[in-house]
Structure formats: structure tokens, C-alpha cells
Write a structure and sequence with these properties.
The complex is a heterodimer of chains A (about 110) and B (about 110).
Chain A (H helix, E strand, L loop, with lengths): L8 E5 L4 E6 L7 E8 L6 E6 L4 E2 L4 E4 L5 E6 L8 E9 L12 E6 L1
Chain B lengths: L3 E4 L2 E4 L5 E7 L5 E7 L5 E9 L2 E4 L6 E3 L9 E3 L8 E8 L8 E2 L3 E5 L1
Parallel strand pairs in B: 2-11
Antiparallel strand pairs in B: 1-3, 3-8, 4-5, 4-9, 5-6, 7-8, 9-10, 9-11
The chains are: A mainly beta (about 110), B mainly beta (about 110).
Chain lengths: ~110, ~110
């Protein structure tokens, strides 16, 4: 499994866009980039995933660089409820087993 | 609504006791997983199962046991051999293959007293 690297913490003002980066320089061709978030003492919640193309859904947008070595999760208008730990992981579509998740980025959205 | 249910939400265990955490899903997912999360840490895989009556160890399986007698259920037993069981336990399920990723339960917080 490819290793991912994320900043430990970030701050964002309410109503502004939150841009969360992730490095995955060793990602292989059949690994997708997934983003999850975890609000304190709850199970992680799926946000978005992508392989090569940029993706958008009702929660967020995912921008993947052309070389696939990094990606950015964008929350276009952050709210206080977006305060959470955000995890970026690489998953092989044929084998969803993931041994270890990193520490993620703790995002604090401030009023 | 389809989902994955963990129970209980909070569990207290005396030292030397075995306890079993429940995980049930109605998503018709083939694969199920158990993760452990310690304060300020990421998730670590304990066990996973991709088919009924079969399961594999993850990175930290020592002191834990599982069973998969039904597709919908994947209970985790924390045995007395687990020296530091106090943690937040998360169950997840997924399809095998495909790109749908994981669906997680809401977790069980186990405390040894």
C-alpha cells in the first residue's frame, strides 16, 4: 500500500474554502485516492475518491495532480461542522485491506 | 436504511476478562474489518474477513479473536491476552474489488477497569 503524508493540523475561517493537501508519491497505477473524515469519537465518514481525474460531489472536490503524486481535498465553504480529522489513504480497488491509516490532518474551522 | 451497527457504544472490562464486541451490517458487503484506534493515533487493522468462515490477521491481531459465521456479522473478542485493550474499536465493511471504499460503524469504546 502506498504511504500518504498529510500536515498534522490546519485552520480555516468559517465560510472560506479549506484546501487539505496529501502527498502519495509512491502510489501505484491501480490505487485510488480516498478521503475520509472523523469527527471526535465517531466512525470515519467517506468523503470522496478518485483515480486520475478531478472529482466533485456534494461534500467536496478532489484535485489530483497529473503525475498522481499528490492531491488536494477542497471543502468550498467550510462550516463549524467540518471540524474533524481528515484522512487521505490509497486503496487498491482489488484489495480493500488497509493495514495502517496515518494520523490525518486535524482541521479546525474557526468562526 | 442500510448500514453497519456496532454495539455496545461503551464497554467496561475487568482485567482478565474476555469481552465480545458486536458488528452487524445489512449492506450485503462481502468484506468486514476491525480496526483499533488509540488517542491521537490513526487506525490499525486487527482482523479482516472477505468471505464467510474465513478471516486473516491484520497488523495487531495478538490478543484478539474473530468469527465470521454469517455474512452480516463479524464479532470481535478481546481476550485476556491483550495487554492493553483500552481503545476505540471500529468495524467497517466493503465490497471486494470495486471502488466503493469502506463504510464504518460508530465505534465501541472499551475501557479496562
Amino acid at each position: 500500500d502506498a504511504k500518504t503524508t498529510q500536515p498534522t493540523s490546519m485552520d480555516c475561517a468559517e465560510g472560506r474554502a479549506a484546501n487539505l493537501p496529501c502527498n502519495h508519491s509512491t502510489i501505484s497505477g491501480n490505487e485510488y485516492v480516498y478521503w475520509y473524515r472523523q469527527i471526535h469519537s465517531q466512525g470515519p465518514q467517506y468523503i470522496i475518491h478518485g483515480l486520475k481525474n478531478n472529482e466533485t460531489n456534494e461534500m467536496a472536490s478532489l484535485i489530483i495532480t497529473e503525475d498522481r503524486k499528490s492531491s488536494t481535498l477542497i471543502l468550498p465553504h467550510a462550516t463549524l461542522r467540518d471540524t474533524a480529522v481528515y484522512y487521505c489513504i490509497a486503496l487498491n480497488a482489488g484489495n480493500n485491506r488497509k493495514l495502517i491509516w496515518g494520523l490525518g490532518t486535524s482541521l479546525a474551522v474557526n468562526p | 436504511d442500510g448500514g453497519i451497527t456496532q454495539s455496545p457504544k461503551y464497554l467496561f472490562r475487568k482485567e482478565g476478562q474476555n469481552v465480545t464486541l458486536s458488528c452487524e451490517q445489512n449492506l450485503n458487503h462481502d468484506a468486514m474489518y476491525w480496526y483499533r484506534q488509540d488517542p491521537g493515533q490513526g487506525l490499525r487493522l486487527i482482523y479482516y474477513s472477505q468471505i464467510v468462515n474465513d478471516f486473516q490477521k491484520g497488523d495487531i491481531a495478538e490478543g484478539y479473536s474473530v468469527s465470521r459465521e454469517k455474512k452480516e456479522s463479524f464479532p470481535l473478542t478481546v481476550t485476556s491476552a491483550q495487554k492493553n485493550p483500552t481503545a476505540f474499536y471500529l468495524c467497517a465493511s466493503s465490497t471486494i474489488g470495486g471502488t466503493y471504499g469502506y463504510t464504518f460503524g460508530s465505534g465501541t469504546r472499551l475501557t479496562v477497569v
